[in-house]
Amino acid sequence: MATRIIALGTLRAYAAQYPDAADALTDWHAILRAADLGSFADVQAVFPKASWVAPDYLIFNICGGSYRLIVTINFPAGIVYVKEFMTHKLYDAWLPDSERLQRIKVKRAADKKAQKRQPRRNEP
User: Fold this and answer.
1) Does the pTM exceed 0.90?
2) Residue 124, in any domain of the structure
3) Rounded CA gap, 87 and 59, in Å?
4) Quick one: which of 64, 52, 62, 76 has its CA closest to 31?
5) N or C terminus of the chain with fewer C-beta within 10 Å?
6) Is 123 within a domain?
7) DSSP per residue over 63-103, as a string?
8) Residue 122 is assigned to a structural domain of this protein
9) Cα-flanking dihedrals φ and ψ of residue 116, to 5°?
10) Which stretches of the chain score pLDDT less than 50?
11) Which domain holds residue 96?
């Protein structure tokens, strides 16, 4: 079963935004589309440098590591969802959604705690 990639239009937009990565993205698409991916091991057989970032992101190095392509894969359905494409420098600051949400929750809790500690102002 061939792999379905959602969405080709997104890849084309990234290729237009980063012309030096256009050929590499086209190659990635062609290789992945023809692959039969049943597990992460199958991905690594085709792309040995692909990495898994918990809970459900796969990261592909594009253009020798100059760029990162972030996807999620529904292995049973054979569907790849393109999430983000960015330079290596931007990727260093990237956080998976679960981590980002956790940091927001921690910050909100700290803000609430700080508000409770502030002395009340006496208003006339």
Assistant:
1) no
2) no
3) 12
4) 62
5) C
6) no
7) TTTTEEEEEEEETTTTEEEEEEEEEHHHHTT---HHHHHHH
8) no
9) -65, -30
10) 101
11) 4-117
Q: What is the Cα–Cα distance from 36 to 100, expressed in whole angstroms?
A: 32
* Count of positions (residues) in the chain: 124
Cα–Cα distance between 5 and 50 in angstroms, integer? 16
The domain total for the chain is 1
The three-point CA angle 39-42-54 to 5° equals 50
| Two tokens, residue 85 | 């494409």
Furthest CA-CA distance within the chain: 74
Q: Residue 43 in 3-state DSSP?
A: helix
**Distances 82 to 9, 10, 11, 25, 38 between C-alpha atoms, Å:** 10, 7, 8, 11, 17
φ, ψ for residue 55, nearest 5 deg = -85, -25
